[in-house]
Amino acid sequence: MDLLIVLLVVLAVVVLVSAPLRAGRGRTEGEEASEVAELEAAKEAKYREIRDAELDYRTGKLSAEDHAALDRTLRAEAIALLRRLDALRGRPGEVG
Amino acid sequence: MATVGRALLLLGLAVAFYGIAASVWGALRRDRRWVDSGRRSVYALAGVLTLAFAILEAAFLRSDFSFAVVASHSSTTTPAFYKATAAWSSQEGSLLLWVWLLSLWSSLVLALTRRHVREIAPVATAVLLGFGAFFLGLTAFLANPFDTLAAAPGEGAGLNPLLRHPSMMFHPPMLYSGYTLFSIPFAFAVGALVTRRLNAEWLLATRRFALAAWLCLGIGIVLGARWSYTELGWGGYWAWDPVENASLMPWLIGTAFIHSIMIQEKRGMLKVWNASLVLATGTLAILGTFLVRSGILDSIHAFGASTLGVPFLVLIGTMTIGSVALVTARRGDLRSEHRLDSLLSREAVFLLQNLILVALCFVIFWGTFFPLISEAVTGTRTSVGPPWFDRYTVPLAFALVALAGLGPLIPWRRTTLAAARRNLAFPLLVALAALVALPLVPGARAQPTALAFMVVVAFTLACIGQELWRGTRARQAVAREPAPVALVALVRRNRRRYGGYVVHAGFAVLLLGVAASSSFQHARDVSLKPGQSARVDGFQIRYVRATAHPAAEKISLGAVLDVSKDGRHVATLHTTRGFYPALDPSLGIVGRFFNGEAESEVGLRAGLGRDIWTVINPDLRPLQPVIDEGNRRFRTAMTALLRGRGDRRAVAQLFALRDAAVAGVARRFVTRPWPATFRLIVSPLATWIWIGAIITALGGLIALWPAPATARRRVTAGYAARVARELARS
Questions:
Q1: ipTM for the assembly
Q2: A42 vs B410: CB contact, 8 Å cut-off?
């Protein structure tokens, strides 16, 4: 009985682990995919930074002038990220 | 089923080695098939170990004493709840729990990130499986929970009485979850360094796991403190014990990390610092595990001397040298993208807070390892006690609490002096009010350091309160909602920020409880007979009557205490000392019931103002002559029975007589009472430690919880559109 249980578990493990190898030809990872993922993460972080700055302004931590200047800088950085993303995706002019 | 358990451990080890090989091969060939197969190895490992842990748990619940670990850590009289927890009271079972949790958390993170961090993930998978293989190797070859005995005993040794506490159900799993979850950012940091993918992506992918690790470890630490307070019978919650310190060190560095990654995310700064912090946190988590298991330092929480020290030292050495080598080799890729704009910025506050946390960790590390350092230098092992730790940690805690308030008031990048003055006015006013009001409390001026600390706490709570109020007002201005609705919406939409603020408030409240309860505590050790009283901090505590509850599991001797103040009844408390039977036959047939391991049940009246904490320590010496007489008579009777090959009924009758005699001896504590020793403590604001911990955990959960998908989409789409308009114009 013990042996049967162990064999069943071994079989289940082999099936689970080998499934991708049995699925067919291997897919290789492109350099672009990683760069896109990295830029997407940077874009998300930048959007969050813009939101945070706005909340800082609305809660009185930033003056209107400071917020305007910071917001401009952050947007410019976000735009630069979007442009790099578009360039990688080969979609000039499309954003977001 | 022990055979199945042993086979599963070996299978797990094989799966871990295969997974490491497949992940590394897949990463080198950039072949998704092998990478996916490596990731699936982690899932398979989780499945195999879930089955193995279930077999062990079933053995404990069935009291299967053919398992050596069950025979030495459980008994038929152990309640079912504690049978379930007994699995991790042993070295062997807790190692299995460690690697099982590691496999579960690793599976979760790899499943969630399977479409992200694709270059980093295979290396991280190999590192995580490397940890798994290490712990499985220890479990399979050095501390196997599935080892069996040649002949199963009829009864087990039972669970250590000190571990029979509800906290023990959750304390070790929480600590181990914290330690194993900290392995995840460690593994991804190694992956990011190896593959040179050092931007924000890996931080985003693992930030939530770092936060979960911080939360679990924090909950584990507080549960341990609660256990110490209500079970160990000394009246304290923190003793700067090496094992307590071992869990605090990764928590402190982890706290620094989850703050400083925000600087990297937003500004691309402190990359070397962050990589070092996360690698140090992972290494300290393993160091904590090592201290519990090696027996290298004396601790009430440790498993005692073992053969596991050397393998752990090898692992810690590898992690330390490897981490330093990786960070050094990648220092060119870890250059900051920006510089600090101003010292009046949140980045600067975070940096200062980081330095304080690292200094705290260094102090604790030095104090914890001082016995080994002193032995290496002088040949004599010398320990440092709580006063040494307090001398350095108290000033650092002052600064930390102040920064917990100051940080949220200062924006990123820079602020102006005018804005800082405007934001600090109200908190400083509150601190000033506290400074004036607190010395008016009777007896408060005797502890100026504690008073000063309370003023700092008042400042921090005012800062957080002001932030929540201003945020709510800002939300109301936009959404025209009632204040409570606006507050909930504000927190819901900015979980990370406001969850963090709640954590800061909870932390300040927790340390307020620590400062007040330790500085203004009144404690007395007294010997009382029934009817006698003692006075502690104005409270009259009267020993009303003795109690005795002899049972198969343990004999409880206790006291009912009446607490009053100025003639008014305040509380009735019941404290007991439970004596568990020893298995050592040399203690005598009756004597072994009174000379086994013992645990205390604290009589506690917890309140928002103060805790009244009592514990009894009955003196058993007056019972010794009766116990000796019982031992002698039953030994004679047993010898006669065995000589006459007494039948089973006669033996059963003799055991029934013995049980009645033991109960009779125990009841003498009530019928002929003699003085018992009591420890009586009145601790102001001690309950706020636990309330603060709950607030902190709540804040951690808020920060951890994912933002609603709809809100995230709305926000992202909104900003994308705005940025797109800007792009179109530019």
A1: 0.79
A2: no
